[in-house]
Every structure is written in C-alpha cells, then in structure tokens.
Automatic annotation (TrEMBL):
Residue ranges of every copy of the D-isomer specific 2-hydroxyacid dehydrogenase catalytic domain listed in the record: 4-318
Protein name per its UniProtKB record: Glyoxylate/hydroxypyruvate reductase B
Gene3D superfamilies associated with the record: NAD(P)-binding Rossmann-like Domain
Species, as recorded: Compostibacillus humi
Keywords linked to the UniProt accession: Oxidoreductase
Domain D-isomer specific 2-hydroxyacid dehydrogenase NAD-binding: residue ranges: 107-286
InterPro entries: D-isomer_2-hydroxyacid_DH (IPR050223), D-isomer_2_OHA_DH_cat_dom (IPR006139), D-isomer_DH_CS (IPR029753), D-isomer_DH_CS1 (IPR029752), D-isomer_DH_NAD-bd (IPR006140), NAD(P)-bd_dom_sf (IPR036291)
Length: 326
C-alpha cells in the first residue's frame, strides 16, 4: 500500500477517501523534522499532500521514495522546485478553484479598512454609540477611486472585475508583462510599479512570493504612495518589508492597511501591527470558505493520485519531471 503523508490541512471527506486506498498519516508539527515519527514515515512516503510544509533539500534527504508533493494552495513558495525537479519529484498546486474566494476577501479587506468596519463594530458592541456620529467616525469611499493591482494574474483579475464593475473603480495594474486582454476587459491601465504607487488610492498586492517579489514593497515604495493610500496585502507576508510597513503606518506615510498575510504566521503576539488602529488583520483566510477549502483539497488529491498512478497531474508545476519520466 502506498504511503501518503498529510501535512497540516486536508478536508475530512478527502482525507477519508485517501485513507481507503493508501496508508495515510497526518502531521501538524511546526518543526516536523524534529518529530521522529514524521521523519520515519517520510523515509517511506510515496507522496506528500498538505499546506505550507517547507520542502527543501534537508527534508528531501529524508524522503528517498517520494514521487510527488501536492500543495493544497496555489502559492508554492514553500517548495524548492529546483531541488524537487533535480530529484524527479513532481510538484503540484491548486490554481483557479480559489480565485473568486480570494478576490472576495480582498474586496472585503478594502471595504473593512476604508469604512472602518471592525473598529465601528467594536464601537457599537462596547455600548459607546450613545449619540449621533461625529466626523471622527467617518470612513473613506471605495467606489470611483483608483485601485492599483500589483500582480494581474488570476486573482488580480478577479479583483479587477469586482472593483471595476461592482464599485466603478479605475484600475491600474503592474505585472511582469502587460496583459492586453485584461486591459480590454476591465478598462485597466498598465503602469510601472512607481506610477502605480503614486497614483493609486488603494494598492492591492497579489503576486506570488518569489526571489523577485520578496520585499518588493518597502520604505521607498511606501514613500511613493499617497498619504491617503490604503494598502492591502493578500499575497504573502514576505513580499512586504514588515518593519517599513509599520513605520509607514505610524508616520502617516500611508493612511491604513488591510492584511491577510504576515512575515511570520501565526503572527507573533508582540507584532506592532496588532496595536495599530489603522490596520485590519486577518489570519490568512483568503481561501478559507467551506466550499473552496473542499475544492482545493479535492484538486490536490486528484493531482497526488494522478502522479502516483503514472498520469500527468492537472496542475504540474515542474513539467520537465513528466517529460523525463515518459
Ligand atoms: N491570502 C491568501 O489566502 C491567498 C490565497 C491564494 C493565493 N494567494 C497568493 O496569491 C498569489 C497569486 O495567485 P494567482 O492564482 O493569482 O497566481 P497567478 O500566477 O495567476 O498570478 C500571479 C501574477 O503575479 C505576477 N507577478 C509575478 N512576479 C511579479 C513581479 N515581480 N512583479 C509584478 N508582478 C508579478 C504575474 O505576472 C502574474 O500575473 C499566490 O501565489 C499566493 O501567494 C494568497
Ligand atoms: O496560496 C494559497 O492558496 C493560500 O494562500 C493558501 O491558503
């Protein structure tokens, strides 16, 4: 029976289906390589499926039998693709099935920050709403404002669609290459990063985390933004220099931020972001709805099983492994 290592998250019905066919073991340790059971199961594992397991050279040295690593996420910055490819191990992810859900969350963050929804919810629940509101409780409009999207991929475009047609926003975008079809669809304008930062009322970051995007938004970039700008990060925490973000928020270089992702997750209790009144925080819930988590688990399991059964997985990240195997 093939051995499957499940890490951190896989929806129960999918886990149960895998358990019928394979020898499945679930692990959740933050430092799995220090767990002897994990290392011993890894020695024989044919496949890994799960979320955010750091699959690097050290881990792979303990996994001589591994054929596939199936990420239950679209982002795969946790995988050393070069090392996996070198060892002929297939890597897969779950693009597409979470696009609309993440875009909804990004719009939710924009609205929550601009209209100060969490703060005013607390105001009402703490019984402070005893007379009519003053200017101090006013928010900022979202509709008809300029939205700059950094990373105009699947999710970036789903955000553009909502913002353009739901909120009449003007869309600027920056991506590795211009996207003429997206420009036509969403009336979007391609900009350099600096132009986007200077002109946007809302800046939404939704790129993958790569060597190029790590720390792409830092002190210089916050200085370019309008003092009234609202910054949304739905990508990965490390795309932003967090200490520079904190400084920009404290010094009024930007107005506010909505963050679903952080440099260290779960966030450390002493992270200053938690004490800033102009920040709305979420615990990395971009794709976390019942429907979408199930769809991601199903797709990840399909990818895993295809690889184990000698078929080409639908969402293969390193196709050269397949070409070599043919
Ligand atoms: N917060 C969450 O829960 C959550 C959920 C899903 C995805 N994400 C993040 O969103 C990312 C994007 O997902 P997607 O499905 O839209 O991916 P995608 O590949 O369709 O889009 C990524 C876009 O980023 C652009 N890009 C890459 N490098 C860039 C750079 N250096 N400068 C500017 N643009 C660059 C690409 O050109 C592409 O258009 C994921 O990799 C993941 O990190 C977060
Ligand atoms: O990349 C993704 O799919 C999400 O961030 C994982 O929850």
């Amino acid at each position: 029976m093939k051995k499957i290592l499940v890490y951190q998250r896989l929806e129960r019905p999918v886990l149960q289906e895998l358990q019928i066919k394979y020898d499945v073991r679930f692990f959740n340790d933050p430092n799995p390589l220090s767990n002897r059971e994990f290392v011993s199961f890894l020695q024989e594992a044919d496949g890994i499926i799960g979320l955010e397991l750091e699959v690097n050279k050290t881990l792979l040295d303990h996994a001589p039998n591994l054929k596939v690593v199936s990420n239950v996420s679209v982002g795969y910055n946790n995988l050393d693709i070069e090392e996996l490819t070198k060892r002929n191990i297939m890597a897969t992810n779950t693009p597409g099935v979470l696009t609309d859900t993440v875009a909804d969350m990004a719009m939710g963050l924009m609205l929550a920050v601009a209209r100060r929804i969490p703060e005013l919810d607390q105001f009402v629940k703490s019984r402070q709403w005893t007379q009519s509101l003053t200017e101090e409780q006013y928010g900022t409009d979202v509709h008809h404002k300029v939205l700059g999207i950094i990373g105009m991929g699947r999710i970036g475009q789903a955000i553009a669609q909502r913002a353009r047609f739901g909120f009449d926003m003007e869309i600027l975008y920056h991506s590795r290459t211009p996207k003429p079809e997206a420009e036509a669809k969403y009336d979007a304008t391609y900009c350099t990063l600096d132009e986007l930062l200077q002109q946007s009322d809302f800046v939404c970051l939704i790129t993958p985390l790569t060597k190029e995007t790590e720390g792409m938004i830092g002190k210089r970039e916050f200085q370019l933004m309008k003092p009234s700008a609202i910054f949304i990060n739905a990508s990965r925490g490390k795309t932003v220099v967090e200490s520079d973000l904190i400084a920009a928020l404290k010094e009024g270089q930007i107005k506010a931020a909505g963050l679903d992702v952080f440099t260290k997750e779960p966030i450390e209790p002493d992270n200053e972001l938690l004490d800033l009144p102009n920040v709305v925080t979420l615990p990395h819930i971009g794709s976390s709805t019942y429907e979408t988590e199930l769809a991601m688990s199903r797709l990840a399991a399909e990818n895993l099983e295809a690889a184990l059964n000698g078929q080409r997985p639908k969402n293969l990240i390193n196709p050269s492994v397949w070409e070599t195997a043919k």
